[in-house]
Write a structure and sequence with these properties.
562 residues; alpha+beta; Methyltransferase, Cobalt-precorrin-4 Transmethylase, Domain 2; Arc Repressor Mutant, subunit A; 6-stranded mixed β-sheet; 5-stranded mixed β-sheet; 21 helices
Length: 562
């Protein structure tokens, strides 16, 4: 059986036999599936094993009562039910199919609204309701037919070209390749009977026909100098190209996106692009694939001296935020995305940002910043590199170790930060629980690429010094990774020379030590009596306790005398 995801859910038979408490949870699932893209609920599966109990029996009367009760508790929700099913282990179960609520918002009988985020159901916030309403039309945009344009009105060469692109793609199944040209158009929802859908016009239409779409794909490419003064502009407003040709034309004319840094590597120079080619392709494709085609506006590609900004009409899909985009799976234009994927133009569903994070980690780049508003989404990708020798270390890791995608992402963060707490790493990787973090870093620890110190929430991860020695890279030692007992000794030396200092004063002298680590160590030393303090919390000053100060001074005198 498939695992639970955005469209599949498993429920125990007790949900429909134990009264209203079980139905309450089941209603939430039905509502969130209806407000997304529909889904399937398997009733009769154990929560732990995800299998029906071997001796489980399901009565038809139970099924009938369940469906009737759900239809009473769910508004604007279409639910169908299967016959009694038998698992190969002998247990019986049944299946509820929830259809997407395409024109209205599904609610519970008491007016509550839920949406599907990954494999979980979440209540809709008041500020998201208008967003959810707007998305109802955008889900249908692709399949709306133009009653004035038939397939005979299309250039036959466009049909042949589309079918050829599908058949020659490595991501297309043999079953699809064997279809006739017209069958391929039907399979990808480009036609409905003899008429073209909006999706069909986007791929096959003449420029004038594409322009009839309410808000077709229009793009502006703008380049700025160091003072952010506009120096060059390209526009695609004539609707002359289908999405694939448009992407290729943008990549051809956007020469500024191919600029690179040159780093020394032995006797040669190694070029490192400001923006890796795979990242550029995925960001451009995402702008077209996830654009809201019910909102007017151009896609803006703005190239600055130190960053790239891509803005497309429409906010992030409901339930997806900048803080969970790495793990959530939700599509705005599923049929368009299906075509782009099968043409090998983009990654699979939900894997695009995984790839962007991996490539940025591999080349020492910061992760993209996402700014989402109601009517637009902006992605900012910086051009800068992390420290040069750290990049050589990442290159060594790539050449000598086989890492999974998620391990490479985590390794890139640790190399960039030099030292990072488990809490901060979870935040960088958009996790809510440390348990999930372990699956990303256990392989790195096992291969000796990183080391950990501390326990539980105090755990910190660092680059293994043995790895740096093996890679023979000239990474300068830093106080960022200093151990706590050595930091304590350093603070004692500092306060011996500079008594009555505030934490900020000590931080200015120990500039490489992270301020949070400095505070933590000073507070611990004050609590254990190693340091004395004076003044209120805001302007508190620290000095060595008299006993410790005398010991330090006597030790220095002995060293001088010897």
């Amino acid at each position: 059986m498939e695992t639970e995801n955005s469209i599949i859910e498993y429920k125990s038979i007790q949900k429909v036999t134990k009264g209203d408490s079980g139905f309450s949870d089941l209603v939430k699932t039905c509502i969130c599936l209806a407000n997304s893209q529909g889904g399937t609920i398997y009733i009769g599966f154990d929560d732990n094993t995800k299998l029906p109990p071997p001796n489980q029996k399901v009565e038809q009367v139970t099924i009938n009562k369940s469906v009737n009760r759900l239809r009473q508790l769910c508004f604007n929700t279409a639910i169908t039910v299967s016959e009694i099913m038998r698992h190969k282990n002998g247990g019986q179960y049944f299946i509820l199919t929830v259809l997407p609520s395409t024109k209205s918002i599904a609610t519970t009988s008491d007016g509550k609204i839920f949406i599907r985020v990954g494999d979980e159901c979440h209540p809709v916030r008041s500020e998201d309701i208008s967003h959810l309403v707007a998305e109802k039309d955008s889900f249908q945009w692709e399949l709306v037919t133009s009653r004035n344009i038939k397939i005979k009105d299309i250039n036959p060469s466009e049909i042949i070209s589309f079918a050829l692109n599908i058949r020659t793609s490595v991501k297309t199944s043999e079953n699809v390749r064997s279809k006739a040209d017209i069958e391929i158009l039907e399979y990808y929802n480009l036609i409905d009977g003899e008429y073209l859908t909006n999706l069909g016009l986007l791929w096959l239409g003449y420029p004038g026909q594409r322009a009839r779409i309410s808000y077709p794909v229009t793009v502006q490419y703008i380049v700025y100098d160091k003072n952010e003064v506009k120096v060059r502009k390209e526009v695609w407003h004539d609707c002359a190209l289908n999405p694939k040709d448009l992407i290729l034309d943008i990549e051809k004319k956007a020469v500024e996106l191919t600029y690179f840094h040159e780093l020394p590597k032995g006797m040669f120079r190694e070029p490192i692009r400001h923006y890796p080619a795979k990242v550029i392709r995925e960001l451009l494709i995402n702008a077209i694939a996830h654009k809201s085609y019910t909102i007017s506006g151009d896609i803006f590609i703005e190239v600055f001296d130190n960053r790239l900004e891509i803005t497309n009409p429409g906010g992030l899909p409901t339930g997806v935020t900048k803080n969970n985009i790495l793990h959530q799976r939700r599509r705005r234009n599923p049929h368009l995305i299906n075509v782009l994927h099968d043409m090998n133009l983009m990654e699979g569903e939900g894997s695009g940002y995984d790839m962007i994070y991996e490539v940025n980690s591999r080349f020492g780049k910061p992760f993209p910043e996402i700014i989402s508003e109601y009517d637009s989404t902006k992605v900012i990708q910086e051009a800068k590199l992390i420290e040069e020798n750290s990049l050589h270390l990442l290159s060594y890791i790539t050449e000598h170790f086989v890492l999974k995608q998620k391990e490479m992402i985590a390794m890139g963060v640790i190399v960039r930060e030099r030292k990072i707490s488990s809490t901060q790493l979870s935040k960088e990787l958009q996790f809510n629980m440390d348990e999930r973090l372990r699956t990303w870093i256990s392989g790195l620890v096992g291969q000796g690429l990183i080391i950990s110190r501390g326990y539980r929430k105090g755990t910190e991860y660092l680059i293994n010094p043995k790895l740096i020695a093996s890679a023979k890279v000239n990474i300068r030692p830093s106080l960022v990774t200093i151990e706590s007992h050595r930091l304590q000794a350093l603070i004692e030396e500092d306060l011996l020379m500079h008594p009555e200092s505030q934490v900020s004063d000590i931080g200015k002298r120990l500039v490489e030590v992270q301020l949070k680590d400095l505070r933590k160590c000073i507070y611990k030393m004050a609590k254990t009596g190693i340091l004395d303090h004076s003044g209120g919390k805001t302007y508190r000053r620290y000095s060595l306790a008299k006993k410790n100060r005398d010991e330090k001074e006597n030790e220095k005198e002995r060293q001088i005398s010897t």
